[in-house]
Amino acid sequence: MPPEATPDKKFDHIRWAVRRLNPMLATYENSRYLEVGVANGRTFVDVVADRKVAVDPKFKFDVASQRKPGVDFFEVTSDDYFAQLPAGEKFDVVFLDGLHTFEQTFRDLLNTLAHTHDESAILIDDTFPNDVYSSLANPRRTMQYRQRADAKGAGWHGDTYKVVFAIHDFLPFLCYRTLVGRGNIQTLVWRGNTQPRKPLFDNLETISRMTYFDMLDHEDAFFKASEADAIAACLAEIRPAKADA
What we know:
Shape: globular
CATH class: Alpha Beta
Order of helices and strands: HEEEHEHEHHEEHHEHH
Distance between the termini: 35 Å
CATH superfamily: Vaccinia Virus protein VP39
Number of strands: 8
Number of helices: 9
Largest sheet: 8 strands, mixed
């Protein structure tokens, strides 16, 4: 969910997601793209790939107008989609923008890892909430508590930020950077061995119970970087020939 509430900025996160995804997809021949959590389709329709797959329980746009060879739509939950996906189906770039809770996004990431390869890139949306209200797993509670506190803002990011800590502690074969500075904060993930780190919590239950303030206490774990530097680091490791071109 975008943190901005004004009409002009409501979908800014879509534009910067496309800006980040398309340069990576351009490095692949016969590129294959998966988007989980498509909603209004504003990212999906502007992403350029030879094969595109959209997954969402309820599409909020005219899917028929976007149907063409190489573009598939699955109006199901991400769990149902991955459950029926053949083991050999692989994607080059994946955008995870589904239900913004720790459990669902972490499960989407693990399912995605089963359907990507050593040169794949995964972009996870909304990994750094803009305030304590935005960090709650339930969007209704976010709005209720914000109104009671007479606080400004209307964004909801959920507790997706916990996924970053789960990656940090339990998926050492993954590298990542959290993109900051030019739009919505997202985390770019890829397979690599250039980011050794010691676990912070080493306990998934502890991570699942983290608060917004626990997150701030360990903000260094996000490995924040500019958009350009993050994408360059990713491509240098997984697509070195293309990164140098």
